[in-house]
Amino acid sequence: MSLIYERSIPGRRGHAIPDCDVQSGVDFPRQFRRAVAPALPEVSELDVVRHFSNLSRRNFSVDTNFYPLGSCTMKYNTKIAEKIAQLDGFVHIHPLLPQLLGGGMLAQGAMEVLYRAEKFLCEITGMRSFTMQPLAGAHGELTGVMLIAAYHKRKGEKRKYILVPDSSHGTNPASAAIAGYEVLVIPSGSAGCMDLATLKKHLTPDVAAVMMTCPNTLGLFNSQIGEICRAAHAVDALMYYDGANLNAIMGKARPGDIGFDVMHVNLHKTFATPHGGGGPGAGPVGVTEKLADFLPIPRVAKRSDGSFALHYQEPLSIGFVAPFYGNFNVILKSFVYMVLLGKSGLQQVSEYAVLNANYCMELLKQWYDMAFDRRCMHEFVVSAEKQKAAGVSALDIAKYLIDQGIHPPTVYFPLIVKEALMIEPTETESPEVIDRFVAVMGEIAELVKSDPQKLRDAPVTMPVKRLDEAKAARDLKLRWQPAGEKQN
Ligand SMILES: *Cc1c(COP(=O)(O)O)cnc(C)c1O
């Protein structure tokens, strides 16, 4: 409807809508037409350009600022991947193009990317096959739990529980619950990890699966993980690997070799595609032999003549979990990243990620308490309880970092750590950047003693002061605010 309005009389509102779209001649039924044009803001092109240019400059991004947002792996996204994703053949492709016609020139290349990306992921993780369809990590979890349900159903069983540690990302219990399971939360032991003895108490034949992140969201590797997998398998519960922290072990250990049966990979985290405000994600799901027959359709297969085709005839498949083949653009950019780095490059990613996190953690220890004071993997969690006792919360620290041009770490997660600041520098940051971050954290520690109000007042460099986020969500105002009018 607004199309008709825009096309008919630009720049005037409140006029009557003509009977049909003058340009296209389409005669829309009267009951579907507006009587009066919507009161849209009217601005010149220059106003629009300025508005969006200024908005874009307000953005914190990996390209502009240090971004140690724990668990999110906000690493640098290589520009070569963007360049390749912009090649004509990729930009103009459409999912409904015929697979094999056009001399194989239309969609064969895209299918080869999907096929080879899957093979790379299998090699990196030790899984037998991947579906590239899921559109995010959380979507991968749901897909994975549906595969787990299909596995037990095929044996004629209906199991009731999925176990998750209390440090798990909220999407884990949410995915399990959406797929119809009851969630049992296992408390972490004193070392910050789920321990075998506690787990065993809950491992009954009614347990469908155990979902784990390893290293976990505290950045800690569970050294009992092999035994945990064996204990789960003893009651035929499956092991789900939340791959969000794959960045820490890539090229060093493979979930499939450790004993996991099903996993997702967050391509937008580990394999460096823009995410957060900057782009969509992808959460391919990998499985071992046991679960391969249940994978979503279609599957990309390589034919004997070397061409690629989509297979739909998979009788045990759980069906589609997304339209077509997933977020192709994200898969493509991740594929470029894997080819670019190669085996030794991907191994270096995890080495530098772990080195940078430990370097940063050791330096911060002079002022801050660590939630768990042991060697970390690619991220670590500070507890600002001591600072809180002096009147400065984790939130205050996060807000002051914004004033210093640093994106805040993840705060108040994992839930089991009080005043948590979860820091993940990633492998793409230089020692100079980490040193500057540490210096600012030191300055904050001083301000806690000398001028805590300054921290509580932060941020002062932003156009708005502290937002009341709960009120913003509960009392959402979407009314357009013309420039110059007072904001309420
Ligand atoms: C990011 C994350 C997820 C969810 O992945 P999305 O791609 O954001 O849906 C799940 N678990 C952990 C540990 C994560 O860090």
Counting helices, strands and paired strands, the structural category is alpha/beta
Shape: globular
Low-confidence stretches: 1-12
Question: Helix coverage percent of residues?
Answer: 25-40%
Count every helix, treating DSSP H or I runs of 4 or more residues as helices. Answer: 17
Report on the structure:
This protein is an alpha/beta fold. The chain is 38% helix and 10% strand. The chain has helices at residues 2-8, 45-58, 79-85, 88-91, 108-125, 137-154, 171-178, 196-202, 225-234, 255-258, 267-270, 328-364, 385-389, 394-403, 431-450, 452-457, 469-474, and strands spanning 129-131, 161-165, 182-186, 207-213, 238-242, 262-264, 285-287, 299-302, 308-311, 369-370, 380-383, 410-411, 420-423. A 7-stranded mixed sheet has the order 1-7-6-5-4-2-3, sandwiched between helices. A hairpin with an 8-residue loop joins strand 12 (410-411) and strand 13. Helix 3 packs antiparallel against helix 12 and helix 6 crosses helix 7. It is globular. 40% of the residues are buried.
What can be said about this structure in brief?
The protein is α/β, with parallel strands linked by helices and 488 residues long.
Strand-helix topology:
Blueprint: H1 2-8, H2 45-58, H3 79-85, H4 88-91, H5 108-125, E1 129-131, H6 137-154, E2 161-165, H7 171-178, E3 182-186, H8 196-202, E4 207-213, H9 225-234, E5 238-242, H10 255-258, E6 262-264, H11 267-270, E7 285-287, E8 299-302, E9 308-311, H12 328-364, E10 369-370, E11 380-383, H13 385-389, H14 394-403, E12 410-411, E13 420-423, H15 431-450, H16 452-457, H17 469-474
Parallel strand pairs: 2-3, 2-4, 4-5, 5-6
Antiparallel strand pairs: 1-7, 6-7, 8-9, 10-11, 11-13, 12-13
The structure holds pyridoxal-5'-phosphate (PLP).
Pyridoxal-5'-phosphate is lined by residues 71, 136-138, 169, 171, 213, 217, 242, 244, 266, 281, 283.
